[in-house]
Amino acid sequence: MQDKTRLRQQDFWTALVLIAISIFFLYKTSEIPFFRANAAGVESGQWYNSAALVPYGIFAAILLLGLSLLLTAIRQGGAPNALQVQAVRDWMFSSSAGRMGAVALILLCYIFCLVPRVDFIIGSALVILALTYGFHVQRPRATFIALVAVLIPSIYALLFHFPQSEWNTPHDDDWLALAAFFVLTITMFIDIRMAGEKPDGFLKAAPLVALLVPALLIVAMAFGFRQNVPNRTGLFFKQIEYQYYVNVRPWLSGKKGG
């Protein structure tokens, strides 16, 4: 019973952190025009073309998750004791707080280091896989491995392409992020085997899903909604865009004409 109460106390503070993070990023996202707006005399497109659409969805989901976790913690007795100083101290040094810190750091690296500089598909796939492995597997070592896998290419991209991204230069940061993705994939399965476990279906599909989700998203954004996407000359997207305009679009035009 004490273990359950302590877990709910940790959930209480974890929920508050999630809510604070989501509200902050929702506020920052609100600075991006969402509905029709005029910028320098040019009228923007509809709301579904806005660059704020995806961040709104992500951080709104995190906010709902935090609120749900908070309500669950309060209903199961996590709030009263959590207001004590000792409870706060326990949470700060708990594995739950460490995992939350790792999530925050990974998201910061993604937003400020990877997205502005690295190919969107590669950077997003790396972060999705890191979050999946680091927090689906309930071991601190898994969280640490996932965090390091994101930190290395993020720090490299920030240091060697600071202050502005250099999308037309050789894709050294793209290649490093791609290498980190494959190394993390291999390390994930090795670590699970070393722990005496077997990867479940969720983890087996994680690398493929991590690549497909951002690829489908950016294809829909670029060619479906005609929205600007980050790093159009990225290692993967450059090839996708080339194939679309050289092969797919002429084929579709010919099919319509026929």
Summarize the structure.
The chain is mainly α and 258 residues long. The protein contains ten helices and two strands.
Can you give a write-up of this model?
The protein has 258 residues and is an all-alpha fold. It has two domains: 1-93; 94-257, no CATH class. The protein contains ten helices and two strands. It has helices spanning 2-29, 53-75, 79-82, 85-92, 95-114, 120-136, 140-160, 172-194, 201-224, 237-257; strands at 38-39, 42-43. Strands 1-2 form a two-stranded antiparallel sheet. Helix 5 runs antiparallel to helix 6 (120-136) and helix 7 packs antiparallel against helix 8. 28% of the residues are buried. Residues 38-42 have low confidence and may be disordered. The chain crosses the membrane at residues 12-27, 47-71, 91-114, 120-137, 144-163, 175-193, 205-225. It comes from Nitratireductor basaltis. Keywords: Membrane, Transmembrane, Transmembrane helix. This is Tripartite tricarboxylate transporter TctB family protein.
What is the end-to-end distance?
71 Å
Structural class: mainly alpha
Rg value: 21 Å
- The parts where pLDDT drops under 50 for at least 5 residues are 38-42
Shape: globular
Q: Domains counted in the coordinates: how many?
A: 2
Record field, number of beta strands: 2
Q: What is the H/E string?
A: HEEHHHHHHHHH
Number of helices: 10
Helical residues, percent: over 70%
Largest sheet: 2 strands, antiparallel
Strands in their spatial order, largest beta sheet: 1-2
Residue share in β-strands: under 5%
Mean pLDDT over the full residue set = 79
